[in-house]
């Protein structure tokens, strides 16, 4: 019989106390995954994995240590606790390390309202293979596509967190996905592109054939790529990759970065960082979304908050330790793995959408670059200087004239984010809801 995760974390806390820990928290994670991959019309891989991991953090005053294991025998748990206590005795003292005060911890939540788990039975390998083959077949119907790599996958993950301050809670989440990568051309003229969809509920997935057709359509659109001209032009980040631009803002307001003094936004609290009509919201309680969670990695209740409100940066992303260092309150943003102590991280984010379609923003930009893929990265965390390899489509007089590749786009994030113009095409099921974004005056290095 499989041991419930709450009993497993309780056992860990007991052995930690017996080993001499003054305070401790324990996390247990159980996961099951199933994936099917199709290539060249043949089954390439079928994989099923099941795992259990446990992690223990012990504290001796301000000294802490973390250990983890994938064996949950009594002997292993006892050895973990003894090792963690011994490590903590040798660790440097950190006055900011410590568990939440009991008055801070979450004590009630509504998991059913979050809809994090599909109640349907685990799909069979045959059902996932059917999805993959349907995606492959649909992509191969497109003239010019000679090869497709397609897959279907499902996973379910449970976690439970408990601490000596009285917190105990857990939840599960499930996921089902379909993906396809389509290839066209040959040699140096070969092009590829992809499409993928993931949902918590399998019934919410679009048809597998739609995924395959979209991958093929995107790959064929890449045929004949060339370098764009060099110069200063507007750039439109396609919705597929626009969230990457906002991720740089999230990195810059992360409490760990701020505490180190290494952020290009370290002096921007209370200042304008986005256009005045835009807000950037985190909502960990959004139903039916893959990153939702009722409490954070330190047991604090999560809540909706504005990272940027009406263009103004309102606060940092903080766990307990970084909040103490900055003499602020935690924003309940701790993330935790079995092998590492908590650190600040966001869950679901959303940028205020615009009113224009992507096509209308293309018309507005006139001549410039529509970016659909980014590669490499050179971001200066202290200054916000930005440079990335890119490919996409060249736009003239508001119309796409052809695909481009092998170019670099560069600018400064502080200037870029203050001029963004969002479209209205963000996909509502994604954890990061960011629409296509038009940015003025970036430097493009191409032909």
Structure, explained:
The strands form 4 sheets. The chain has a 6-stranded antiparallel β-sheet with strand order 3-2-1-4-5-6. Strands 7-14-15-16-19 form a 5-stranded mixed beta barrel. The protein has a 5-stranded mixed β-sheet with strand order 10-9-8-13-18, with no helix packed on it. The model has no long low-confidence stretch (mean pLDDT 96). Helix 1 crosses helix 2. It is built from 10 helices and 19 strands. With 447 residues, it is an alpha+beta fold. A hairpin with a 2-residue loop joins strand 1 and strand 2.
Uncertain regions spanning at least 5 consecutive residues = none
Instruction: Give the helix/strand class.
Output: alpha+beta
Number of helices: 10
Order of secondary-structure elements? HEEEHHHEEEHEHHEEEHEEEHEEEHEEE
Mean pLDDT: 96
Main sheet: which strands, in order across?
A: 3-2-1-4-5-6
* Helical content (DSSP H or I, runs of 4+): 10-25%
Give the end-to-end Cα distance, rounded to a whole number of Å: 64 Å
Q: Biggest sheet, open or closed, and with what strands and sense?
A: 6 strands, antiparallel
Shape: globular
Strand content: 35-45%
Annotation, overall tally of beta strands: 19
- Radius of gyration over all CA atoms, rounded: 24 Å
């Amino acid at each position: 019989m499989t041991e419930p995760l709450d009993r497993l974390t309780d056992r860990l806390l007991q052995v930690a106390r017996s080993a001499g820990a003054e305070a401790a928290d324990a996390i247990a994670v159980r996961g099951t995954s199933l994936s099917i991959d199709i290539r060249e019309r043949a089954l390439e891989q079928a994989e099923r994995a099941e795992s259990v991991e446990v992690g223990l953090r012990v504290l001796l005053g301000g000294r802490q240590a973390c250990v983890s294991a994938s064996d949950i025998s009594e002997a292993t748990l006892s050895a973990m606790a003894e090792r963690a206590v011994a490590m903590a005795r040798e660790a440097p003292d950190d006055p900011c390390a410590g568990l939440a005060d009991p008055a801070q911890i979450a004590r009630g939540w509504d998991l059913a309202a979050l809809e994090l788990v599909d109640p349907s039975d685990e799909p069979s390998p045959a059902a996932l293979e059917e999805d993959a083959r349907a995606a492959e077949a649909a992509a191969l119907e497109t003239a010019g596509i000679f090869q497709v790599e397609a897959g279907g996958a499902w996973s379910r993950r449970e976690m439970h967190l408990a601490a000596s301050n009285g917190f105990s809670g857990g939840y599960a989440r499930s996921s089902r996905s379909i993906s396809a990568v389509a290839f066209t051309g040959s040699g140096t003229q070969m092009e590829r592109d992809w499409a993928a969809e993931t949902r918590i509920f399998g019934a919410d997935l679009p048809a597998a054939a739609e995924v395959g057709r979209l991958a093929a359509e995107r790959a064929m659109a890449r045929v004949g790529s060339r370098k764009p001209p060099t110069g200063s032009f507007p750039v439109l980040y396609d919705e597929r990759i626009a969230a990457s631009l906002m991720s740089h803002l999230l990195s810059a307001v992360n409490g760990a970065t701020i505490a180190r003094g290494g952020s290009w936004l370290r002096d921007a609290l209370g200042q304008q960082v986005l256009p005045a009509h835009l807000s950037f919201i985190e909502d960990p309680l959004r139903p039916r979304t893959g990153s939702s969670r009722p409490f954070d990695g330190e047991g604090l209740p999560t809540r909706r908050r504005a990272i940027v409100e009406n263009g103004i940066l309102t606060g940092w992303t903080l766990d307990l330790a970084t909040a103490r260092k900055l003499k602020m309150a935690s924003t309940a943003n701790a993330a935790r793995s079995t092998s590492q102590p908590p650190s600040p991280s966001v869950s679901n984010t959303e940028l205020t959408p615009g009113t224009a379609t992507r096509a209308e923003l293309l018309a507005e930009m006139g001549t410039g670059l529509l970016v659909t893929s980014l590669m490499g990265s050179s971001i200066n965390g202290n200054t916000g200087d930005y440079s990335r390899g890119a490919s996409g489509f060249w736009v003239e007089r508001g119309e796409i004239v052809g695909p481009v590749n092998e170019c670099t786009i560069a600018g400064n994030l502080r200037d870029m984010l203050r001029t963004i113009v969002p479209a209205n095409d963000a996909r509502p099921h994604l954890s990061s809801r960011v629409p296509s974004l038009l940015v003025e005056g970036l430097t493009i290095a191409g032909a």
